[in-house]
Amino acid sequence: MAKPLEGIKVIELADYVSVPVCARILADMGAEVIKIERSGGSAWRASAKASCPHKFTDAENPGYDINNTGKKHIVLNLKTKDGLEVCHKMLKTADVFITNLRIPALKRLGLDYESLKEKYPTLVYAIGLGYGEKGPDADAPAFDHTAFWARTGFLLDMAPITDDYHPVFPPSSVGDNFTGMTLAVQVCAALFNRVKTGLGDYVRSSLFHNGVFAMGAMQIATQQPNGSVYPRPRQNLGVASGDYLCKDGRYVYIASGYAEKLIPKVFAIIGREDMISDPRFSTAAARRQNSAELYVIMKEALLQHTSDEWLAFGKEADIPLVKMQHFSELSDDEQVLANGYIQDVTYPSGAVYKVASSPIEMDSVGVISTEPTRPVGADTRDVLIGYGYTEEQLQQLRNDGIIN
User: Fold this and answer.
1) pTM (predicted TM-score)
2) Which of 144, 176, 274, 400 is catalytic?
3) pLDDT at 322 over 90
4) pLDDT, tens digit, 9 for 90 and up, residues 121-131
5) Distance set, CA 321 to CA 242, 253, 310 (Å)
6) Extents of the domains making up the chain
7) What b/e sequence results for 241-277 when a residue is b if at least 16 CB atoms lie within 10 Å of its CB, and e otherwise?
8) CA dist 179 to 19, 25, 353, Å?
9) DSSP letter string over 362-403?
10) What is the CATH number of domain 9-214+374-399?
11) How far apart are the two ends of the chain, measured CA to CA in Å?
């Protein structure tokens, strides 16, 4: 069975994570993705390697591979006339051009949307942005940590207030992944629409916009003058929901705050059925009013049993209760393994790394294998031969520093 995007050609001119994630998703669904890098390789190769410097190398870099598997990698110097000529030859037959260069840089290269839309009317032009196209910060540098996490309120407001309060430290690349997937959805919709109209489209996705949308429930809840106020002390956060320390020193998380029917079940498993009819706790409004007292009751109750015991109690009562895990525990999580959410990736040296598998799950796609990515420029020759370049022309391009 053909994959849904087989026959679609994507040219990627992007660094770091968000747009490469989008291109990886398109490749997973069958698109041919050609990634253009500078002669020394993209900055993310080095950054990903540095995340585990005692183990990752140029040849074994799963932090890079997870975002770039399944692509063809070429080197092309776009700061030259001849390099741009090669790029335009590729764009002429491409279905999608995807980039996260800042717009002023794209304009200098003549690769911005306005410069290309008339020349390639069927091209889907997709761009990943930091803060959007308009406003005072349109051209500001942006990363996942700043535009998605810090500016949207999460880091300040999700850390419970304590005597030594400190903002939450963000995880790596979550906002990038969110943004890349949003962009991929739009690219697929644009390709579908092209079938009907014969025309390409201009699609964009920004870290900041995706962050605002991701925090949308909190942004609505905190609107003043009558909104909720964050950050809060732990005892004023959702109870009987939230994190609780258990007898074995592990934490569990109970998610019952948005389903009133679960509250009696929570009170029952802690042995406090009397609280179901207690006017202090019988309604959501009453629980909010008496949250500090309820937190103490819940906290003391959860300390009476181990996390595994609470998991069993929660399962029997059909309550969404889980043991809180460390990142390191995902590799051995039975549910992860049963569904293939992590897979072993074997490198030429024989080293094996456990890497999260593609989130794409389609019968027409089948099992997607994450593979070690190709070295910098490994596919330059073969790709350009496919565009009609001769060996003599390629050698001249190498001599001129256009390709590797």
Assistant:
1) 0.94
2) 176
3) yes
4) 999 999 999 99
5) 10, 6, 8
6) 9-214+374-399, 234-328
7) bbebebeeebbbebebbeeeebbbbbbebbebeebee
8) 8, 12, 26
9) -TTT------PPPPTTTTHHHHHHHTT--HHHHHHHHHTTS-
10) 3.40.50.10540
11) 36
pLDDT above 80 for 136:
yes
Sign of the alpha-carbon dihedral angle for 222, 226, 229, 235: negative
The dihedral through the CA atoms of 334, 337, 342, 348 has a sign that is: positive
Task: Read off φ and ψ for residue 21, nearest 5 degrees.
Answer: -60, -45
* Chain Cα centroid distance, residue 147: 13
Indicate the residue type of 371.
E
| Cβ atoms of residues 167 and 155 within 8 Å | yes
Give catalytic status of residue 176 as yes or no. yes
Closest CA to 147 of 183, 176, 182: 176
Q: pLDDT digits over 208-224, tens only?
A: 999 999 999 999 999 99
Residue 124's φ and ψ, nearest 5 degrees, are: -90, 115
Architecture per CATH, 234-328: 2-Layer Sandwich (3.30)
DSSP alpha helix (H) spans, 303-346: 307-317, 334-339
Q: Could you give the CA distance from residue 380 to residue 121 in angstroms, rounded to a whole number?
A: 26
SS3 74: strand
- Spatial contact of 175 and 148, defined as CB atoms under 8 Å apart: yes
Strand pairing of 321-323 and 251-254? antiparallel
Question: Using one digit for the tens of pLDDT, what is the confidence trace for 142-168?
Answer: 999 999 999 999 999 999 999 999 999
Sorted by sequence, the CB contacts under 8 Å of residue 106 that are 6+ apart come out as: 99, 112, 127
